[in-house]
Design a protein that fits this description.
20 helices, binds zinc ion, 30% helix, single chain, 7-stranded parallel sheet, GIY-YIG endonuclease, Arc Repressor Mutant, subunit A, binds adenosine-5'-diphosphate, 6-stranded parallel sheet, 5 domains, Rossmann fold, 755 residues, alpha/beta
């Protein structure tokens, strides 16, 4: 009797484990690890990925096993290396393997549809690309000019003979009757029609010229040598290594990435470069193209599903060897991966905060480690976790101590104590007199300034002058923000709620309501009034999404803006050489967040913002307004003293037993029904406590700082241990506990946000 075969299959459904199926004999050859298969699932048929094939079904009773229906691809859809990584990621985060697969394979359900042949034959399976296909007219090489060609057909023939090929849609724009003419040429055998997937990538729109590399500075040489040596060892001996490249903003870290990527490609390896927000970093993409050409897959949220699929396939096939993208690019199917770069590794956007809550930086290290590749994390303000990894010798530190341009020095930072100074002529507390004077000077000198305020909208709240309460969102435990430009409405920044400003207080009915505090919109308005000759612009999510923000930045670069007011968006790595002044309007907002990382985040933010000043030839000035000028996160940022801050903060974390001196798992419980949420939170904390080995602490349960969101009451507790493995058993117990109706439970391994 022939041996039986069974496949473990990851299916994209939100359940914990993989499922076992029987493999029909006709499919033995093609059902291998990594292949996509169609399998019955309940009443549906879903597409899954084979994790393993065995001759033994394990502990599942044979008679319960259903057979696989069909195999979709001729080759495994995921390279083995990527598949192993995904399985490990699923284990690390205790995330459903099917969901993890979905992260890496956006095409699993949406891009390809498998259909049975009319006769139902299994091997008649076809995968249909649902992509838009573009008809391209191609000149048949060597074809002679047919006789008696006239009019459009003759013009088209000549055009295609020179151009070799052109999309039909383009031809019809020039020749109204192009379709008929092309058809004629096809009939004559001199032109053929091929279908090509349509790709439109805004980043690859224009041609870029190659730019020669600058002569590296001695610290760059040292860093590049170290990384290139490691790359050689990775390629030759399968040895993995990890580096932390610590260099102040403008010190030339990107130059190090470029040289490392160049070398990696020379050695035949593939490269992934992760950046915080790809839409805000087209400059980085341009620099890569200037040096390495167009063989780059840029993965960003602006891509259509089809384009994404095309990029994915080109990477998978090895046609493209370098992928640049935001956090999800850590799943790029780059062939023979030998280098992963994570730029601005401290950045919070590498953490996915919904679904599978993975951290792309941590997973970059894991993937590099498993695939015997080199990982380079770069930052001006390294995360404490990475610093700890260096101290524990799990990573090697490389340093670029100075700015690359000899003339560009770090800006002078002045602290303004908001407790001691009053407002300037605008009357706004956040536009203090010293801030006003500084802006006046910049405007008079014809220079450029950036003002940072992490609050969009006109005013953060609408306050009742009689009872002192603010107008709140009916769905969330937050105050509504007053917006003027978005139709004079109050908006909730957490849910979709908005309303016209109420005529009376929702608490006491009094009619005098005042707009409290200032957001970017209000500052922009005030500045326009106070500095009538200056061109003021704003950059925040209300003005600009994705690529549009690049337009505002382009105007800034073209010097069409004198003062740019903005949120976080203005702090990211833009190279704006003409900016001489940066003002931080309120450093305390970030400091007061109820989160043990508040100081670290504030420090990163201040150093990043300060790094925007004086990147060109004019020295820059930075002014930070705060009520806590003596707080180390503020005082040390003002002195650009990253290592002193790291020492201070590591000591504080050690004392409080927070990461990197412990590992955390946060369990979140929410429900529309507050009682259900509370009681299940209590139950789960109990379950976790009973399953936990000695040394695990359960902190909570307690209401989340944002206690109600979208009408759901939120509770959480934190499990803490010195060692990650100790948290596994209590987490499994939590994951396996039955969840009552109307309650949602999720867990966050290595949580970043404590809200
Ligand atoms: P970072 O990534 O650390 O912020 P960049 O790589 O963007 O720094 O470098 C900052 C500026 O210095 C860029 O304009 C870059 O072209 C320039 N630069 C980098 N390395 C050198 C070098 N070795 N010689 C001259 N200019 C350099
Ligand atoms: Zn809301």
């Amino acid at each position: 009797m022939a041996t039986e075969r069974f496949a473990r299959v990851a299916v994209p459904v939100p359940l914990g484990q993989a499922f076992t199926y029987a493999v029909p004999e006709a499919l033995y050859e093609r059902v291998v690890r990594g292949s996509r298969v169609l399998c019955p699932f309940g009443r549906r048929q879903v597409m899954g990925v084979v994790l393993s094939v065995a001759e033994d079904p394990g502990d599942v009773p044979r008679e319960k096993l259903k057979p696989l229906r069909a195999v979709v691809d001729d080759q495994p859809v995921l390279p083995d290396e990527l598949l192993s990584f995904l399985v490990e990621l699923a284990r690390y985060y205790l995330a459903p393997i099917g969901e993890v697969m979905r992260l890496a394979l956006p095409s699993i359900e949406r891009q390809a549809r498998a259909r049975l042949d009319q006769d139902g034959a299994l091997d008649g399976m076809k995968v249909q690309s649902v992509g838009r296909l573009v008809q391209v007219a191609k000149f048949v090489e060597g074809a002679a000019e047919p006789e008696k060609l006239r009019g459009a057909a003759l013009e088209l023939f000549e055009h295609l003979r020179d151009a070799k090929q052109a999309p039909v849609s383009e031809l019809t724009q020039r020749w109204g009757n192009a379709r008929a003419a092309v058809k004629k040429l096809v009939g004559l055998g001199v032109v053929e029609i091929v279908k090509e997937p349509k790709t439109r990538d805004p980043f690859l729109g224009d041609e870029v010229e190659r730019v020669p590399a600058p002569t590296p500075t001695p610290p760059q040489v040292e860093a590049v040598d170290a990384v290139c040596g490691a790359l050689a060892a990775a390629v030759a001996a399968g040895q993995s290594s990890a580096f932390l490249l610590h260099g102040v903003t403008g010190s030339g870290k990107t130059e190090v990435y470029l040289r490392a990527a160049e070398r990696c490609l020379e050695l035949g390896g593939g490269v992934i470069v992760l950046v915080p927000e790809i839409a805000l970093t087209p400059q980085l993409v341009t620099r890569f193209r200037q040096r390495l050409g167009d063989g780059i897959a840029v993965l960003h949220s602006g891509l259509s599903e089809v384009d994404r699929h095309v990029m994915w396939k080109r990477l998978r096939s090895g046609e493209l060897k370098l992928a640049v993208g935001a956090r999800s690019a850590v799943f790029a199917p780059v062939a023979n991966l030998k280098l992963i770069v994570v730029d601005e590794e401290h950045d919070g956007s590498f953490k996915q905060e919904e679904g599978v809550r993975y951290h792309a930086r941590d997973m970059a290290r894991l993937r590099a480690h498993r695939s015997r590749a080199v990982c380079v994390l770069g930052s001006a303000t390294p995360s404490l976790g990475s610093v700890a990894a260096v101290r524990e010798k799990r990573m090697q530190r490389l340093t670029l101590p100075d700015r690359a341009h000899a003339t560009a020095t770090l800006p002078k930072v002045e602290l303004v104590d908001l407790r001691r100074v009053g407002p300037g002529p605008s009357g706004h507390r956040l536009l203090s007199l010293p801030m006003h004077r500084a802006l006046e000077r910049v405007v008079e000198a014809g220079e450029q300034a950036i003002l940072f305020l992490n609050r969009r909208g006109f005013a953060p709240s609408l306050l009742c002058e009689s009872c002192g309460k603010v107008t709140e969102c009916p769905n969330c435990s937050v105050s509504l923000t007053v917006h003027r430009s978005r139709g004079q409405r109050l908006h909730c920044h957490y849910c979709d709620f908005s309303m016209l400003p109420p005529s009376k207080c929702q608490h006491c009915g009094a009619t005098k309501l005042s707009e409290e505090g200032a957001g970017t919109e209000r500052i922009e308005t005030s500045l326009s009034e106070t500095f009538p000759t200056a061109r003021v612009a704003r950059l925040d999510r209300d003005v600009a999404a994705g690529l549009k923000s690049e337009k505002v930045l382009a105007r800034m670069r073209a010097r069409e803006i004198d003062i740019l007011v903005g949120t976080q968006m203005v702090t990211k790595g833009h190279d704006l050489p003409e900016v001489t002044f940066v003002g931080v309007l309120n450093a305390d907002a970030a400091l007061s967040m109820p989160d043990f990382r508040a100081a670290e985040r504030t420090f990163h933010l201040l150093v990043q913002v300060a790094g925007r000043a004086g990147r060109g030839d004019t020295p820059g000035t930075v002014m930070i307004q705060t009520r806590q000028p003596e707080h180390p996160a503020v005082a040390l940022a003002a002195q650009h003293d990253v290592s002193a801050f790291i020492d201070y903060e590591l000591e504080a974390r050690n004392e409080l037993r927070y990461p990197p001196f412990s590992r955390l798992v946060m369990v979140r419980i929410d429900s529309m029904d507050e009682n259900r949420a509370v009681s299940h939170a209590d139950r789960l904390a109990d379950v976790a406590g009973k399953a936990a080995p000695a040394g695990v602490e359960i902190l909570g349960p307690a209401p989340a700082p944002l206690s109600r969101l979208r009408n759901r009451f939120r509770f959480r507790f934190v499990m803490r241990a010195a060692d990650r493995n100790a948290l596994r058993r209590p987490l499994l117990a939590v994951a396996r506990a039955p969840v009552p109706a109307q309650v949602r439970v999720s867990w966050d391994v290595d949580p970043e946000s404590m809200l």
